[in-house]
Amino acid sequence: MPTFAYEAMNDAGKGPTMLPLTALVVQALIDCGEAALVPLLNALVAQADSTWLREGAHHVFSSTRSLKVQQVTADVVKALKGPASSVATTEAAVRALVSMQG
Q1: Which DSSP category does 6 fall into?
Q2: For residue range 4-21, what is the model confidence (pLDDT) as tens digits?
């Protein structure tokens, strides 16, 4: 049985800033763990101007139970909430992708 970042899945997406579908997608990416890592990093590089994507990625990477995802995305998580987050996130995501290849 999967565990959820939300206390109750019925609460997913409730609130002023997150659509229900978005919350379910974020939860699905959390549950995917390492399988979501490369696609999500690539999306951050390709869509650097998307605030929704950055907020969702921050939630996914911050809520993951995968040690590998935590290690690979530590700098990305910092960049997602730091100054000039779109540029900093793109650079951190590229570094994370490169580190996984080597």
Answers
A1: S
A2: 455 555 555 555 555 556
Angle between helices 85-101 and 37-46 (to 10 degrees): 140
* Owner of token pair 């080597």: 102
The string of pLDDT tens digits covering residues 30-75 is: 999 999 999 999 999 999 888 889 999 999 999 999 999 999 999 9
- What is the per-residue burial (b if ≥16 Cβ within 10 Å, else e) of 14-26? eeeebeeebbeeb
What's the predicted TM-score (pTM) here?
0.76
- The dihedral built from the CA positions of residue 81, 82, 86 and 91, taken in this order, carries a sign that is negative
- Domain segments of the chain as ranges: 9-101
- The full DSSP string for 12-69 is TT-SSS--HHHHHHHHHHHHHGGGGHHHHHHHHHHTTT-HHHHHHHHHHHHH---HHH
Which residue is it, tokens 């910092």?
78
